[in-house]
Design goal:
- Residues 371-387 have a biased composition (Basic and acidic residues).
- Residues 371-403 are annotated as: Disordered.
- This is Annexin A11.
- The protein is mainly α and 403 residues long.
- It has three domains: 42-123 and 292-403, Annexin (Annexin V, domain 1, Orthogonal Bundle); 125-196, Orthogonal Bundle (Annexin V, domain 1), CATH 1.10.220.10; 201-291, Annexin (Annexin V, domain 1, Orthogonal Bundle).
- The protein has helices spanning 50-60, 68-75, 80-94, 98-109, 112-121, 125-137, 144-151, 156-170, 174-181, 186-196, 209-229, 231-234, 241-246, 249-263, 267-274, 278-291, 293-305, 312-322, 327-337, 343-350, 353-362, 366-379, 382-387.
- The longest helix is centred in the middle third of the chain and has 21 residues, at 209-229.
- The radius of gyration is 25 Å and the shape is globular.
Length: 403
């Protein structure tokens, strides 16, 4: 990649318009539509009675032991907004915060991860995100992956609300906190600051043919500027930041398509080959998300469970935060990417007890798991065990049983 584009164009990259270059359309065909259907796994429950649900939760926490199955079934079939209304009803009826009531019961017999999911389900999304940001930047080695995953995948409105939630919760500006506690490159912080400005063009995908063609030509200018500069300059010169943080997602997909024509290589691979630091991770993640958000989050889930150990915080946050948006689509994409294994089999293999059960319910994997469990139980019936040498089965404790 050489400097074939005149240097004088760089300061005006964010202003380049086809209107300034009439007759430049040529015969370029408009790009295909980029719409991807989002399938949530948690939707509004109808009919909905918050008082009845509050009483059901109260009943599940009374008597001999907590009825975890009832709690899971109820909470995973209600949206966050409905859970907020249940919490208000519980407080009005019983004079006690539902989280305090649940924590009082669950701490007796349930592992920390199950309790963490239950509590997270009652947090409004922006407060849950704010907590993850706060945790990520206060680790001895800050968790850039969590910062990138949250900040690069939220809308302008969501980012604005998130900043307000962080200030309300921690009495501190989020960007200032990142600057103080994230020990990484200055340019990485500059990229995060640009994202937090929440100025991305969010106009819907263009349908007017003339405007589509203008957008394509604009994309050619941006792609050529990126190509001539090369990835190392993308990650060191502020002039390129507006392309990644201000352009609309449909426009960026066209830019990447044009750039790949020049490089003959996927953009994320170009970045991975030439940028190996936090900036490379940021740009690579942003490109992957923009090109296909379902694939991006499928990979996030995979990385949270692959190998030895499980990144439970990332696993929980991804499943909870995407459940009302597109987790069904992410699950289907996961199953395609990592076949013959499925998201269900990964969760089953990496988690246990009611923690496993609630994640499966939130991810819409419960039926698949029950089907596999039923098939396996038939294959290992007492008669079959006897035929295989009479090896006795191992009974798990009651709190590790799947429901």
């Amino acid at each position: 990649m050489s400097g074939n584009l005149p240097e004088s164009l760089y300061p005006d990259l964010d202003k380049v318009s086809l209107d300034d270059h009439p007759g430049a359309l040529g015969d370029h065909n408009p790009p295909p539509a980029f719409g991807i259907m989002d399938m949530p796994t948690v939707v509004e429950h109808h009919p909905f009675d918050p008082d009845a649900d509050a009483e059901a939760l109260y009943g599940a926490m009374r008597g001999l032991g907590t009825r975890e199955k009832s709690i899971i079934d109820l909470l995973c079939a209600r949206t966050n907004d409905q859970r907020q209304r249940i919490a208000m009803s519980y407080k009005n009826i019983h004079g006690k915060d539902v989280i305090s009531a649940l924590k009082g019961e669950l701490k007796i017999i349930i592992s920390g991860h199950f309790e963490s999911v239950i509590i997270a389900l009652f947090k409004v999304p922006e407060m849950y995100d704010a907590e993850q940001i706060h945790h990520a930047i206060h680790l001895p080695l800050s968790d850039e992956d969590m910062l990138i995953t949250i900040l690069c995948t939220r809308s302008n409105e969501e980012l604005t609300i998130l900043k307000g939630a962080y200030r309300m919760q921690y009495d501190h500006d989020m960007l200032a906190a990142i600057g103080e506690h994230v020990h990484t490159s200055a340019f990485f912080k500059t990229l995060l600051a640009a994202v937090l400005q929440a100025t991305r063009d969010e106009r819907p995908e263009e349908t007017d043919l003339t405007q589509i063609m203008k957008n394509v030509e604009q994309a050619k200018w941006d792609a050529r500027a990126l190509y001539d500069a090369g990835p190392k300059r993308w990650g060191s010169e502020k002039v390129f930041i507006p392309i990644f943080t201000n352009r609309s997602l449909p426009q960026l997909r066209i830019i990447f398509e044009e750039l790949e024509k020049l490089t003959d290589l996927e953009v994320e691979k170009v970045i991975a080959n030439e940028l190996h630091n936090d900036i490379g991770k940021f740009l690579e993640s942003l490109v992957k998300y923009i090109k296909n958000k379902h694939k991006f989050f499928a990979e996030v889930l995979y990385k949270s469970m692959k190998g030895l150990g499980t990144h439970d915080r990332k696993l929980m946050h991804t499943i909870i935060s995407r459940s009302e948006k597109d987790l069904g689509s992410i699950r289907d994409q996961f199953d395609k990417m990592y076949a013959p294994k499925t998201l269900t089999s990964f969760i089953v293999g990496d988690t246990s007890g009611y923690y496993k059960s609630i994640l499966l319910a939130l991810a819409g994997c419960k039926r698949e798991h029950e089907h596999v469990a039923h098939r396996n139980s038939k294959e290992h019936s007492p008669k079959e065990i006897k035929n295989h040498g009479g090896v006795p089965s191992i009974r798990m404790s009651q709190h590790d049983d799947d429901y």
